[in-house]
Amino acid sequence: MVPYIPNTPEEQQQMLQSLGMNQIADLFADIPEHLRLQRPLDLPEALTEPELLRYMGKLAQQNINLDQCVSFLGAGAYDHIVPAVISHLTSRGEFLTAYTPYQAEISQGVLQSIFEFQTLIANLTGMEAANASMYDGATALAEAALMSCNITRRSKVAAAANLDPQWVDILEVYLGSQNIELIRVPYGSDTGQIALDAFDLKTGSELACMIVGQPNFFGALEDVEQIASWIKGSGGLLVMAVDPISLGLLKSPGEYGADIVVGDAGCLGNPISFGGPSVGFFAVNGTKLIRKMPGRIVGQTTDRDGNVGYVLTLQAREQHIRREKATSNICTNQALNALTATIYLALLGNEGIKQVAYQCAQKTAYLRRKLVEAGFKLRFNAPVFKEFVLQVDVDWEQVNERLLEQGYLGGFPLKSAVPELADCVLIAVTEARTRAEMDQFVELLRGCR
Amino acid sequence: MEVRKGLLYSKEHEWVQEVSDSLVRIGITAYAQDQLGDIVYIELPEVNAQVTEGEPFTVVESVKAASDVYSPVTGTIAAVNEKLEDSPELINESPYDDGWIVEVKSSEFDFSNLMTAEEYESYLKEV
Amino acid sequence: MLLLEMSKPGRCGYTLPKLDVPEVSLDELIPRSYLRETEPGLPQVTEPEVVRYFTQLSRKNHGVDVGFYPLGSCTMKYNPRVHEDIAALPGFSRIHPRQPESTVQGALQLMYELDQCLAEIAGLAKSSLLPAAGAHGELAGLLIIKAYHKFNGEADQRREIIIPDSAHGTNPASAQMAGFTVKEVPSDQRGGVDVAALREMVGPQTAGLMLTNPNTLGLFDENLEEIAAIIHDAGGLLYYDGANANAILGITRPGDTGFDIVHFNLHKTFSTPHGGGGPGAGPIVVSEKLVDFLPSPIVEYSDGRYHFATPKHSIGPIKAFYGNFGVLVKAYSYIRRLGAEGLKSVSENAVLNANYVMNQLKDDYYLPYDRTCMHEFVLSGKRQKELGVSTLDIAKRLLDYGVHAPTIYFPLIVEEAIMIEPTETESKATLDVFIQTMKTIAEEARRNPEQLKSAPTLTPVKRLDETKAARQPILKY
Question: Nearest-CA neighbor of C475 among A240, A312, A135?
Fold first, then answer.
């Protein structure tokens, strides 16, 4: 008996009879006998709900979670404060158990909430329009690069060498399949910022786009203005990958003249959930780019009586209509995570997002000062937002183990991700960290030396 | 569905109007716009781009479809109907006049594969 | 009323703890030219306003919890709530993807066990849990096909992916993204792949075939083995689009028929909620010979512990971190809750329900492929079209009756298509009401077609002007 299947044996018989059949197996007559599985699937035994809860609870307990420790881990996923009310709203069945709003008249809830998401992302990034969401920041970036090639009809993409290496690996997979060349723009060894002076700027005329992280993987802030004027002067697009939280404080990509802006909005109210599901956003400037965006887009319109309503629009870009000529293959996106981000942004508002960003910056600055005072060395000297690289002369993995014993997750060692920074660690500080936690962290680190 | 006399027609439902020996105007037929439904967008090609007979040179979009527009001639785009950028509905409302799409120039056109209005009318009866 | 229309300066919906570190002038931290000069453009509203706004919005939305949702090819089945509780356990929802492996052994074990379950269900060797959706799984699978041919020195030659004309649009779009040329194979009179045409198309240029089975007509391809042989004999690989796997759990396994790669849509077959369009998950499972090409990372078990590994010839990562982990938790919970028998019962009842509804409706609507269907079937509204009532009108009228419309105008090979997938979690009583409603609408089409053209009238908004939305797009407030 499966509690999710209402048909009783009697009803099954009635239904089979109406079909002129005697048994369930008759329904599968089109499948040749020898292709039918002649044994039960070899799966673990079915569990009742309490048994399931016990088993899954045990698995969950084998993980150390962020409520049990103090985390300075970042590198693409961040422990930001999540307002309690969000999950109560997103767990409403009308949102949770709906699909892509194909029937607009009974999907106004999802459609209007996507319109809100598009509005808030566009405003925050300073762009004209945003789509309904992408899988995550990394795949949004890959799609932005492909779209840049499509728009400019060029087949080289430049990406800063200080972008998240994981994002770049994904970018390479996407670009490689289309034979698009990825060129890396070096970063300054002291600043950690893009070093345009160490790059052959003439190649600009062949570039579809230049990808800039703001902040970059090292947490450092780029001097975007200079980069923007170079790439735009070369006829390429400026693609910015940004932390949406940082936009409560930092100049918006729109103000820099960015053409495409992407990022990961998982940090906006979504549970960190081992890195997924998160949600990517994708925003652009200009009619031409809007018409080439990947993904779903919601637009405002009116009904027969002139009432305002919302529909999926510009669908002729998409795979279900244009098939192999579509701007992307994306269909299912991360709608519920986008809804989460929307509610988060609505709750925080202008003042809230500024405050979160400001506290991240202040607390990061505090920990940096404390670490320097304790004799540690900052690897780069550029201004940072909520993350920074610390150079350490100890075996960080061992240190991390000792920190863990004290309930601390002590930063992300860069040894494997960025080989040239093998003796460095990336430390993230969000508004969720307290002064006491940071002070104790510094003390513990001091003890590890 | 109007088939305008004096124009030439392609099997892909484009019309060609001879403006001069070296210039033609191109659009899609009344039949084509009717099949597509309300046109919501056309991606206009760039002036000076080359077009080849039988090859797509632009795409028209309706709410639920995107269709290639094939060039009925070979040549260079001399002008595009920029009004379509903001008013793509002109293709629906006036396919042979205000809804023209591009003008193409060439020193020598080959119209041998195109149909007369009468031929196109009987062609429409077959499709 | 939108959020920004409700906004009033001075309001806020959340407050942070007071900053507890000594403040430094911002000028000392970040150059002024890097700072924002404009407002972020977010609304200023309080928590109760936010709650009421989104609650009201939700009430304007249909979901599986609200009513019948027979959206073909989307498997809108019931989403068990206990899975939400499990995914929200801090041990799953509050773990960081960069934590040392030793601190997330439970998460890795879960992924490893899910991988094994999916492999058993598919009849294949090993999974990648990374893809975030079906289309993403397709891309991963196609990149594996490419990598496999490259490994065998045939990458330059094998550039064509064959896809039936009945396939989802994601198939050709994914093939294009993976850098292949798409070749479309027609369907035959029975709704399956036209085998003769397929035979003509294959050759040394063939990289592989993508096949949805049961296909988008809801039909199990009767020539599956022959199709598999044609592709394999030509040196191509076989990709199984498992979007419709809700029909085959424990009944038949793609791997046993010779398929090399399968993707499952966990948000369809394995009951994870669709969330208004996502998140989903589209893990792929591959045969032994393709395991080395899987995206990185995969989860392995050795020396008493679970760990991430990179396959020898991996195509690389395709998504940040480890996929939509939260969705994986729910799908694994479902598999463990149901077990082998339960899953088989899912498919049996899904197929029974579909056939029951199909049989009851075929007098009123044209049924282009009149044979036993699997978990879904496709009607044509062409009889009603002759009366001046389009499939769109029928769909919109269904909304007035509190039912989500089926998938319409798809697959493209059926005129005025109406694709209906009831799923196993609907009762006979619900199906009977739906059948009666469809019959009533067919009657309305005969008697009063104008009424259908103005539908829906009982919904929060009436029929919306999509042309206007696309001509002059308004995409933000």
Answer: A312
